[in-house]
Write a structure and sequence with these properties.
The chain is globular and about 45 Å long. Strands 2, 4, 5, 7, 8, 9 and 12 form a seven-stranded antiparallel β-sheet that branches. It is mostly beta strands.
């Protein structure tokens, strides 16, 4: 099993702004085992609250291409692709988020899966998993890191 990292910011906004995605290929099922989320917008007197989600999607949307970074420099390139700072949002699945949480603007959140319980994407082209801003009370930029196995 090989590990990779994807990291990037969302576009600024108050609703549905995706920071980073892992996009499956037809021969691989990426397994998200860790993610981090924070806000890079400077805190202000209103101290914003962020609602974010990690969710599967069926259409990747339009994003800045990002080459997943191998955790072991001797590993081959990832089969899955990645995107950051989406200009057209992915089509997220109707079944709901894998996780949907709230954090304070001054807080960074990190999640790590118990071994064997990673979030998995299907081996279907243009499908995958994304980390996005569901809502915040003022325009902000969310930063996310996704760590996955193939």
């Amino acid at each position: 099993m090989r590990g990779y990292s994807v990291t990037g910011p969302s576009a600024s906004g108050t609703t549905l702004k995706t920071a980073a995605t892992i996009v499956s290929g037809t021969t691989v099922r990426p397994r998200l085992y860790e993610f981090e989320v924070s806000l890079v917008t400077a805190p202000n007197s209103t101290d914003q609250q962020l609602n974010y989600a990690v969710q599967r999607f069926t259409v990747a949307g339009t994003a800045t291409a990002y080459t997943p970074l191998p955790l072991d420099p001797a590993d081959v390139a990832a089969v899955a692709t990645a995107g950051v700072t989406h200009s057209a949002e992915p089509t997220y699945t109707a079944g709901g988020a894998l996780t949907n949480q709230n954090i304070n603007q001054r807080f960074k959140y990190r999640w790590v899966a118990a071994p064997g319980y990673e979030f998995m994407a299907p081996a279907t082209a243009a499908n995958g998993i994304g980390l996005y801003n569901v809502a915040i009370t003022a325009a902000a930029v969310m930063h996310g890191t996704l760590m996955f196995f193939e």
